[in-house]
Amino acid sequence: MDISQFNCFISVAQTLNFSEAARRNYVSQSTVSRYISDLEKEFGVQLFTRSHRDVIITNEGKTLLPYAIEIVDTLKKAKSIIKQMHDGGQGKIVLGCDVTSLGFPAKCISDFSEKYPEITVEVRKLNRSDNNQDIVGGDYDFCFMPRDMVPENSGIETLVTHYEQLAVVASASKKLSKSDKISLCELANQKLLLLSETITPIVYMEIMDLLRTFHLSPEIDSSFDELISLFVAVSSGLGISVIPSSLANLATSEYTKSYLIDDADTSISYVMAWNKNLTNPAAKLFVESVKKYAKGEDNLYAL
Prior knowledge:
There is one protein chain. The chain is of the alpha/beta class. The chain folds into three domains: 3-81, Winged helix-like DNA-binding domain superfamily/Winged helix DNA-binding domain (Arc Repressor Mutant, subunit A, Orthogonal Bundle); 91-162 and 270-301, D-Maltodextrin-Binding Protein, domain 2; 166-261, 3-Layer(aba) Sandwich (D-Maltodextrin-Binding Protein, domain 2), CATH 3.40.190.10. It contains ten helices and 14 strands. The chain has helices spanning 3-15, 18-25, 29-43, 59-87, 103-115, 131-136, 201-213, 227-235, 245-251, 281-293, and strands at residues 48-50, 55-57, 91-97, 119-125, 142-146, 156-164, 166-171, 181-182, 192-195, 220-224, 241-244, 256-261, 268-275, 300-301. The strands form four sheets. It has a six-stranded mixed sheet with strand order 4-3-5-13-6-14. The chain has a four-stranded mixed sheet with strand order 8-12-7-11. A hairpin with a 4-residue loop joins strand 1 and strand 2. The longest helix is centred in the N-terminal third of the chain and has 29 residues, at 59-87. The protein is elongated, with a radius of gyration of 31 Å.
């Protein structure tokens, strides 16, 4: 028995017409007749009664039909799964995300998971100082981070994913501006609550450079090692924060208000980095999902 025999048997059973079954299976009518005869010999029963004008399925044929359909469907599923495995359609990928890289990876993962539901996606926080080891060491298939965090290494490949602007987040009770934008000079007399330099070195450096450029010396508390404690402190009115706009969107609630900085170029370039010797077939598929959204400078996060 083979799948072609079952396909022809199903077609004859559904149409009660050998010519139509032949047309559906792209074979000759004599081939269909031979396949049915072979199945009848295999099972030792008559599956159809035939006359010059009519084809009637027997009780034995009716009994066989649902099993034949199940066999064909199971084989199709097996072929599909094996092809997916070969092409990377099953498996697992591990993503490392810098604490400020949230919005962009999220939409890529959503798109990828919808297209490849059988592939497991594990997301971890990047919190090591050795980014070279993170990327090429095998712990992650891909790392999302500010471009300036990527170490110089010929074995690392990068794709610019997006550019993020910095935004100011304050308690909703603080009326820093009448619009959704704010000038940097308005931060001079505010207490700044920042994620620590250890956790977000590039963002911290960008903020410090901006303050120096505008000759601002506000009081700064950069002891926050996690977003939750920072958000609680800001929403409680203990100070204001400067963070990437995607994080500002995340932080915005009835207790907070976000503002874009409108008098300075605050964009930070973000990339996805990975080992050039990528062998995980599932990971190779993920690259295509990311390229769908990575639009360079045109892909600028805003509030």
